[in-house]
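Researcher: Sequence recovery benchmark, item below. Answer with residues only.
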């Protein structure tokens, strides 16, 4: 079966084609360059870009996959969470295409698509596992029992982890997005040389908070500048990154202990970070925990992860969506909570 995936939750316009789990094409066009000067995503610009781009990306995905429109058997699309205007473009495109081709459509939760991204093209998924989605918009911890059974465990109470990387990059005078910039600065620094006065206040909870560490960086820069001293951005970036990585791992370990789980699945844009991978893999090994990451090209927003989960839900659970489905910008992680349920296609 050929499944088309559509992803437009933020600034990436993604269209992918998969055949029985295997990626045939995975096209992404990004409006990122138009947002850079504003230091963050401007929703209006992102929406306009999706409108102008989606048809071209769709045609490219079909062409590169070597399939015809008429061969599409299912259309999977992100319907939330994300920017309302951006989501609406993908949802409307998917519905119109599904209607004209007379094929089933299925709305996919963006966070769940990230969660299963390490298993694209693989048959086996090691349920149950602890999922951590870490991106520019989300820091979400959940226990995943099946393709459609999630128990949300925690989330950020303020900034998302990627957002904290982005803001710290801005504080240090570098560009947006800041994740990869902080990572490369940190490589040349020594975390021990800068002590950031920061302790995560709620060690017992599974929720996250990153605004404190961001403020600690801001105050450090202010205080050192006041004393007319030069800031070593390499050491500061390294200290920030190490603190964040260690704090997040503490939460993961706590979640594993509470839920008695030995498998962790990390996904989302921040999961591309090499130091984070190295630290998580090394630390979890000591506790007999296995950590699984997506391939690098599947960490950032893409439509292959949407197509893949859509195909699994359709084939294994016989789910499709009806045409009343619409964009839900604040969709929660849990399928059963606060949004349109899938209809069962009997
Ligand atoms: O998943 P994603 O493409 O978009 C959202 O759904 O938000 O993630 C983008 C986020 C940005 O905040 C970016 O700074 C961060 O991922 N990121 C990184 C790295 N590369 C991208 N964070 C840390 N280290 C990196 N190497
Ligand atoms: Zn994402």
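Model:
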């Amino acid at each position: 079966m050929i499944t088309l995936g559509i992803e437009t939750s933020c600034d990436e316009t993604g269209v992918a084609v998969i055949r029985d789990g295997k990626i045939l094409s995975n096209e992404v066009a990004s409006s990122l360059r138009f947002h850079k000067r504003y230091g963050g995503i401007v929703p209006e610009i992102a929406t306009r870009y999706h409108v102008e781009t989606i048809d071209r990306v769709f045609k490219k995905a079909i062409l590169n996959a070597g399939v015809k429109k008429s061969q599409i058997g299912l259309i999977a699309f992100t319907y939330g969470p994300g920017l309302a205007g951006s989501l609406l473009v993908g949802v409307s495109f998917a519905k119109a295409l599904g209607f004209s081709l007379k094929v089933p459509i299925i709305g996919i939760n963006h966070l769940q698509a990230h969660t299963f991204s390490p298993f694209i093209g693989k048959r086996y998924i090691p349920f149950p596992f602890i999922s951590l989605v870490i991106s520019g918009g989300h820091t979400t911890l959940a226990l995943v029992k099946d393709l459609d059974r999630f128990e949300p465990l925690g989330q950020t109470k303020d900034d998302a982890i990627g957002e904290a990387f982005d803001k710290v990059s801005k504080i240090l005078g570098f560009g947006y997005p800041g994740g990869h910039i902080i990572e490369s600065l940190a490589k040349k620094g020594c975390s021990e040389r800068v002590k950031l006065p920061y302790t995560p206040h709620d060690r017992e909870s599974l929720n996250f908070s990153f605004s404190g560490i961001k403020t600690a960086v801001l105050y450090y820069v202010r205080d050192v500048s006041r004393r007319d001293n030069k800031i070593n951005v390499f050491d500061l970036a390294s200290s920030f990154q190490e603190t964040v990585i260690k704090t997040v791992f503490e939460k993961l370990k706590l979640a594993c202990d509470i839920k008695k789980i030995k498998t962790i699945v990390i996904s989302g844009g921040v999961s591309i970070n090499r130091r984070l991978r190295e630290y998580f893999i090394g630390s979890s090994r000591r506790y007999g925990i296995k950590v699984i990451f997506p391939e690098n090209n599947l960490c950032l927003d893409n439509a292959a992860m949407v197509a893949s989960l859509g195909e699994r839900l359709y084939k294994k659970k016989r789910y499709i969506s009806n045409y009343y489905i619409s964009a839900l910008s604040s969709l929660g992680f849990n399928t059963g909570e606060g949004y349109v349920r899938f209809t069962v296609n009997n």
